[in-house]
DNA sequence: ATGCTTTTTGTATACGTATACAAAATCGTT
DNA sequence: AACGATTTTGTATACGTATACAAAAAGCAT
């Protein structure tokens, strides 16, 4: 074993600015392998060697190359998160929680927002080993691609929206029960002529909330007629527009249930635009209980789903799966709760 | 050159699932280098070879390994974006635009949200070559670290918040002028006893908007007394709280200017909580003109800054810099415009 | 056909790190 | 002091891709 520097005496810093473990080795007078071992700290290293190496890393400002590490370790330490409309305040809350949880676990987060190709690109990113796994918050009809990905054992978790019969980890709230809660509440208060504004027809959230609500209304003897059911793509503006048309009808409904809060805000805005208000002229109920729902400006009655908890749980499922790929898929469902506020009653 | 397969005849798919360019080469009966050339399409390739290779890629489902590519090309094709509070609706709008623009350019986006270490970790990510550059939307006092990073020629762009004397690309709106606009408007309408709610004292946006506003009020002969100036950390809740205290005073101010819309919503909420309203009991003015500001529920008078355009511009600056690292730093400033709505006048 | 230029392809290597294996150093025991 | 066990370190190589260089093939004019 050499007595002096094992790694020769080249320039310590190249014009490129990149400092490699070899540079550190050279300065510390050890082999590159030893530097690597100091980094992964676990190994057997003589205390003085460790100090020498750490000093060299310090002076050179060594930072390992993420790509090289990813190649060797087969882990990128990056998680992808797919979202469809980050402008809907529900998603920032979920993202807030996801970034915190993943950050805590030492992962970075790649964000896909909107863009038709988001879901597909996220799956590609897994195959490129650019990300270790992906959390989908807005899965819908792309079941085929997802299925293919699953068969390749891609670590995937669905949160919020869920795909039936899809054998991956999934986290959702009990949307059917949540929808039913709303029906019960409205009927209890004698509001039986009501409208429903759904989101996207192929989103499980919208479907289940609608089903739970509409089925229960029917059970209770007050079926919601077709002409009082709408789809507004989870968009504030479309919900506002739809509600506007509803309000212009001769037989104005006495309550509107929206499949999420964001659309409920649109409904309230439609009322306000006409000089009307909730609950005076029409009750409005949302779903999610985003922070804004509790603001005095909206004071929205809504079904609370534990969004942040769901996010955390989804993140942890994914992290678990990265450690133990053969874990049986888990489907987790959180209970919901009706939060009564000023937009009703 | 060899007649048969140049890459031997190992297994075509390993248990790992990873398909490498070597596997493709083997199947297509060419060398790994040729596969690589087909990928980078630019090179000289015989049409039939290209087809053979493409077919092989297709059947094997080849996707290049991001880490390996990053290592060779010294480009990760990832851009970092740092945000402080994604829950503030201003940032989702900026993010929406950034993700679109960067996606279009073939870049993925790593998001840092909150967390004291965000800024620092983003800089580390550059040195790890995990990202090619970073867009900071919430730069404040970490000037030293930024300066160090800059000296290492790290591609950095600041948008929204800006750091004086910092020689990197920066995109902002003319916040001083914007603040002055508000002062002019209020005085024009005889509202001279006014309060100011700032964000964070070390955020350029808050500082400049405050300065523009307060200086102009003074110039016009209506200095805003110290006890009507507040800091509410750009938070809805704190602004609501501060406004509450303002409203409880004997000499209630006749208008409140908030350094961003999010806080203005808090101010409006404070009014509503007390059964008061804008503009009846107190005018409220915000800054940013986020989508929500135009919702009937808020109908907020505000200073519009072209947030989305700023985001796009910042993204392009960064992309330019990646191509031409020695570009002289550009400071871009967008003009602002007062948007008068129902919360005043 | 011959010799030339141009296109196409293969060989070899580098990027920066992690790790299996072997060599060296250290330690403890007798 | 000598030997074996243990700790520490170095050597060599692999991860998957891109590319400089050289070799082969193809094209073209004579």
From TrEMBL, chains A, B:
GO terms for molecular function: DNA binding. It comes from the Bacteria. This is LacI family DNA-binding transcriptional regulator. It holds the Pfam family LacI. PANTHER family: HTH-TYPE TRANSCRIPTIONAL REPRESSOR PURR-RELATED (PTHR30146:SF148), LACI-RELATED TRANSCRIPTIONAL REPRESSOR (PTHR30146). The lineage of its organism: Bacteria, Bacillati, Actinomycetota, Actinomycetes, Micrococcales. InterPro entries: HTH_LacI, LacI/GalR-like_sensor, Lambda_DNA-bd_dom_sf, Peripla_BP_I. Keywords: DNA-binding, Repressor, Transcription, Transcription regulation. Residues 19-73 form the HTH lacI-type domain.
């Amino acid at each position: 074993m050499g007595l002096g520097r094992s790694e020769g005496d080249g320039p310590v810093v190249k014009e490129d600015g990149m400092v490699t473990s070899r540079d550190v080795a050279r300065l510390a007078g050890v082999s590159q392998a030893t530097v690597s071992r100091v980094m992964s700290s676990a190994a057997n290293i003589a205390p003085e060697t460790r100090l020498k190496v750490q000093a060299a890393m310090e002076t050179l400002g060594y930072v390992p190359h993420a790509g090289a590490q990813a190649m060797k370790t087969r882990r990128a330490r990056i998680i992808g998160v797919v979202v469809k409309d980050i402008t809907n305040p529900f998603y920032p809350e979920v993202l807030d929680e996801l970034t915190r949880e993943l950050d805590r676990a030492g992962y970075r987060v790649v964000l896909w927002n909107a863009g038709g190709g988001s879901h597909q690109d996220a799956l590609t990113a897994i195959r490129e080993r650019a990300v270790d796994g992906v959390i989908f918050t807005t899965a819908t009809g792309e079941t085929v691609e997802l299925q293919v990905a699953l068969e390749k054992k891609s670590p995937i978790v669905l949160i919020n929206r869920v795909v039936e019969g899809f054998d991956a980890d999934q986290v959702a709230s009990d949307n059917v029960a949540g929808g039913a809660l709303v029906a019960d509440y409205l009927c209890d208060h004698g509001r039986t002529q009501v409208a429903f504004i759904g989101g996207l027809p192929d989103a499980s959230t919208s479907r289940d909330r609608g089903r739970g609500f509409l089925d229960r209304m029917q059970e209770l003897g007050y079926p919601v007629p077709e002409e009082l059911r709408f789809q507004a793509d989870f968009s504030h503006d479309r919900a506002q527009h739809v509600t506007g048309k509803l309000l212009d009808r001769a037989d104005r409904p006495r309550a509107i249930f929206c499949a999420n809060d964001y659309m409920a805000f649109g409904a309230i805005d439609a009322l306000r635009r006409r000089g009307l208000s909730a609950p005076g002229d029409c009750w409005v109920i949302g779903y999610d209980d985003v922070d804004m729902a509790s603001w005095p400006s909206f004071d929205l009655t809504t079904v609370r789903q534990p969004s942040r908890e769901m996010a955390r749980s989804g993140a942890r499922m994914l992290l678990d799966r990265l450690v133990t790929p053969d874990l049986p898929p888990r489907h987790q469902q959180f209970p919901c709760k009706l939060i009564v506020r000023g937009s009703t009653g």
